[in-house]
Amino acid sequence: MSTRPRLIVTRPAKEAQAWVADLRGLGFDALALPLITICPMTEITALTEAWQGLASFDAVMFVSGNAVSHFFDQRPGALSNPFAHAGAAPRAWVTGPASRSALLACGVPTGAIDCPSSDSGQFDSEALWRLVRHRVVPGYRVLVVRGRAERAEPSPQGVGRDWFAQQIEAAGGSVTFVVAYERRAPAWDHAQREWVARAACDGSVWIFSSAEALGYLAQCAPQQSWAQSRAIATHPRIAEAARKAGFGRVQESRPLLPEVVASIESNT
Question: Does residue 44 sit in the same domain as residue 96?
Answer without folding.
Answer: yes
